[in-house]
Amino acid sequence: MDIKQIIGEIVAGKQEVGGIKQVYYVACGGSYGAFYPAKTFLEKEAKDIKVGLYNSNEFVHNTPKAFGENSVLVVASHKGNTPETVKAAEIGKKAGVPVIALTWLTDSPITEHADYVVKYTFGEGKDIAGEKTIKALLTAVEALNQTEGYEHYNQFLDGVAKIDHIVKNACKHVAKRALAFAKNHKDDNVIYTMASGAGYGAAYMESICIFMEMQWINSSSIHSGEFFHGPFEITDAEIPFVIQISEGSTRPLDERALNFLNRYAKRVEVLDAKDLGLSTIDSSVVDYFNHSLFNNVYPVYNQALAVEREHPLTTRRYMWKVEY
Ligand SMILES: O=P(O)(O)OC[C@H]1O[C@](O)(CO)[C@@H](O)[C@@H]1O
To answer: Where is the SIS domain (predicted)?
Structure first.
């Protein structure tokens, strides 16, 4: 069953009780970040459907009161075995809420508590349109289109059809810059990321899953709009930033932050979605494709950084090794 059919079945099943009123996205770490575009999509485009994005353990211990007969729960876990995400799915299943599980390993614990299991693409040469981020977005787009209606549905599907090509070209485009970045930053003990809008999740993932988890470099993902409300005080010629300049409605926030960095910082890596080819996607929907672009361009930098620092991306000292 594809996502359109899954949502169709859920919508039909909820007709008697008043339809879908809330969609909850629940996951941890990289999977949590991948839900960011779906969350921002429903926040902005839906009039009647409410959306929640939760860390799994927060959802388990602080379950929203509205979670119930009008809800849909979408969980994601790459290997399907993160205990708090499995628990969140179990809570959904027990409450009779339809649970959609996005996972790469379909033979995993999370699938025991899922009504619908959706496998996504992953790894070398993957189809970007089949990734977790786009699958999650499609649950949001279908939920909206099949209830309130979504005027830019066709433009969105056209964006899905274009994203793989755009991302693969962009990765080639940054290859040289990524090598230079890796050389320039190999000895840094802090690198900040900055972003806004639907693409913010990519900056969050780069900070927590790559710089902190996989490279043991201090980091924080600063929201471009929030930069001027505290973080900008740490700016100087030595402090490194990676800034995402998004395409779409929040671009002015990113440009304002970049203008400031251009005056007071010296070590700024600019990832501009416009330069990277995202503008071929219709402006009515382009916001929601920033994440897929940035999140797939970062690995070109990450591989180069890992080689230069002689610190493989697979190295962990605590994760999956000790009790936590
Ligand atoms: O539940 P998932 O998606 O398998 O995530 C497990 C782990 O993978 C990461 O997303 C990346 O290693 C971590 O943040 C997280 O703890």
So the answer is: 6-151
